[in-house]
Amino acid sequence: MNQDLSNQIQQIKKNREGDQKSPNMYGYNIAVVMLTDLLGCILVGLAIGLFFQKFFHTSALLTAGMTFLGGIAGLYTVIRFAIQEDKGTKKK
Length: 92
Known about the structure:
Elements: H1 2-20, H2 26-56, H3 60-90
Helix pairs in contact: 2-3
């Protein structure tokens, strides 16, 4: 009984390892993650800028600046993710 459970767990782990990096969809998944990270950071910067503009009655320059900072944060995140993925593929 205990051996069967151990065998099932081993089989599930093997199946998950094989599914994680499917060659057919792997590049598409990376592109989607990078795009959502970049756009998400830009939109968060825009939202913060609009909030500050409305709450503190500032000019649109603060909103533009926060959007720009969101873009920089998004690029930093994408570059960091790409480096991490590159290190992961070189190990194999």
